[in-house]
Write a structure and sequence with these properties.
The chain is built from no helices and eleven strands. The termini are far apart. The protein is mostly beta strands. Strands 2, 4, 5, 6, 9, 10 and 11 form a seven-stranded mixed sheet that branches. Helices cover 0% and strands 51% of the residues. The mean pLDDT is 97.
Amino acid sequence: QVQLAESGGGLVQPGGSQRLSCAISMTDFRRAAVGWYRQAPGKRREWVASISATGIANYGDSVKGRFTISRDDAENTVYLQMTSLKPEDTAVYYCKTGLHWGQGTQVTVSS
């Protein structure tokens, strides 16, 4: 059984930073690629970033240079460090591995 649990969301001011965590319960986590996605109200779910089992990271154009994805294999956790946040980053953020999704965590960027 694979379970994902996001945390770290909240209200942050424009220009601020936030770090999201995704704790994953699964066997062979070290071999798993993990992605972050987000969905704003009334919009389609959007891919944000992903990290391979070997630590190779890729980013969507809208977050490149501002967000950093990383993983801690000892803790079975993937992080999303977000900086220079904008109001348009407001969304529910989800992590995903294989066909499994977490429940999401809300990030609101507003003054």
